[in-house]
Structure formats: C-alpha cells, structure tokens
Amino acid sequence: MLAPSVRHLEFARDDGQPLDFIPGQFIQVHFNYADGTPTKRSYSLATMHDHALGPGEAVEIAVSYVAGGAATALFEALDEGQQIQASGPYGRFCLMPGDSNRRYLLVGTGTGVTPYRAMLPRLEALMKERGVEVVLLFGCRTPAELLYGDDFRAFAARHPNFRFVPCFSRELPAEPGPDDRRGYVQDALPDFAPSAEGDIAYLCGNPNMVDASFEALKAAGLPVPHIRREKYVSSK
Length: 236
Description:
Layout: E1 6-11, E2 26-32, E3 38-44, E4 59-64, H1 70-76, E5 85-90, E6 103-109, H2 114-130, E7 133-140, H3 149-158, E8 162-168, E9 181-182, H4 185-188, E10 199-205, H5 207-219, E11 227-231
Parallel strand pairs: 6-7, 6-10, 7-8, 8-9, 10-11
Antiparallel strand pairs: 1-4, 2-3, 2-5
C-alpha cells in the first residue's frame, strides 16, 4: 500500500514477450462486472524504464481503491501469482523527442504522478544531454498520500536540475522539507514563473486541477501545444 487507498502492483507478461512502452503511456485492465458485463480501467505504467520491458520485467501500476468499486474488488482479491487480462500500452502523454525546451513543469495529483515516475530515466538522460531542468509539483492531502515520495526525493538528491515540490492541501509533514508547501499545486505554479519561451508543462490527475493549471499556464503565455494534459477520473 503506497497510501491508505492506493496500492502498488507488479505484473509480468505470462507469454514471455517484451512489452514496448513509452514512459507516460497506460495499459487497460479488462474484467467483468458481477452481472457479467465486460468493462475496463486504465492505469499509467509506473515502471522506471526508458526501454522495452524484457521477459519477466515488472509491469508496475498504482491502483486507487474506491469504496464499492468493481475494479477495487478485482484487485483486492488478487493474490501473488494470479492473473489479470490487460491490453496496451496506449496514450501520447509522453516526452516528445523533438522538444528543445529549457524546463519541464510536471504537475500531478494523486495517482496522476505515476507517469512521472516512469519518466525519471528519460529525464535523467535529458538533463545530461542538454541540461534541461525539471520541476515536479505533486499535490496530495496529507503526507501519508505522497505516492512514490521516497523515489522522487532520492532522484532530486542525485540530480540538482530536478526539483520535487510536494503540496499538501490538508496537513504538512511533522518536519517539512525546504520545498514542502501547504496548498494546491495550481496555486504554487506562479512561484515558478512559467515561461512561454522556455517551458513545456505536463498536467495529470484531478480534472479540476488540470483545468485550473491549464488556464494559469495559458495566462502566463504558454502556447497550448506546450501544455500536455491527461485527466484521471475515478470510476466504480
């Protein structure tokens, strides 16, 4: 359990084949409702890789548990060694090869931070290749909900060009770090002076946050193609 209502799960393909994916993409898990009606849910890959996953390498996802949710019932009942049906990967919420920006502003809430974890190896390469800077603004309510916080803090400690800024809307840590903030991520955005000339922004998570951040970045002058969005909506 990454948080009281979020579980980290790892799977391996049962056919022994590699899984080609680009960090930022998602898979779809297929299952049936209790009445037999087929349905599916989408989950961003959390695996920190910048290459195809080889045979047996873990396909990692973070699953939010929703009270009474059909997908929650599926995942809660899983024991080690059991199988799910999945397809993909899909999606274009990815770092683009042709980008020439000076800085990435990555903004996420809840499990919307998952694709940024997968992007870390590629971001590390971009820092070395062209000195790009990265700011990750992660919004959650309490310290207990800071998903993958240890991974991001460790990455920031190793890379001066990477800044991790957790924003807590309800409760700060007992001993806040220098970049820990109270409030919402969209309210912290102006502190980083978004620039039309040098920035590309990624927004992932709560739809209200995505919309508010999108408007703030447009007002700061960022062209719409430089604001890349993916909204997460919890489904039962």
